[in-house]
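[job 4471] stage=fold_predict status=RUNNING
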Amino acid sequence: MFKSHKNDPEFNLEGTIQNVWIKKGKPKFISLLTPLGLFLIKVSKEAVLIGISALAPGYEVKVTGQKKQDLKTGKIKLKADRVISISPPISTLTLSLYKPVQYSYSDTDKKCSVPTAKILICQKSDCRKRGGDAVCKVLQQELAQRGLEEQVTIEKTGCLKKCKSGPNLVILPDKTRYSKVEPEAIPVLIEQHLAGNREEKSTSV
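[job 4471] inference complete, writing structure tokens
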């Protein structure tokens, strides 16, 4: 739960849009790659676009808005109210929220594909009640969108402990654990931990 303040701290980031998630014809979230790292940013319904008519991957932009901190978890959430174009886009691809893109692979690709990473996700009742099923579904869809089904496996497990902090998941091989995972955070987690698997596949002979 977030407490609203009249004067929430502002953020100001510059970077390249990596992905855009559309819901009901409007941008819902963007992932922005900056010198500080990759950020997931919610786009306000009243957000103003300056110098661009629409958001798309490849745009170099300056994003400003408000940031709020969950007083219980300490997590920071960013909400954009202004997006300013810095340079023309290099791509016009936009991705729909939770709608998988179908990829086709040859038999040779399938034979050569070897899983190099794994995501463990708790399926005990506590985690499922807290959104574990939705997180699992979005994981499958986001991996499919990136063509990572053959490189990354999702393993549904028993209790991973910290049940009250569910949904819980662990990303292998680096053994990074996440609690209170929200579906909107999945794209960023995949980019942070598993993008290398996609690069390995694209450069393999």
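[job 4471] summary: Residues 1-6, 89-115, 199-205 have pLDDT under 50 and may be disordered.
[job 4471] exit 0
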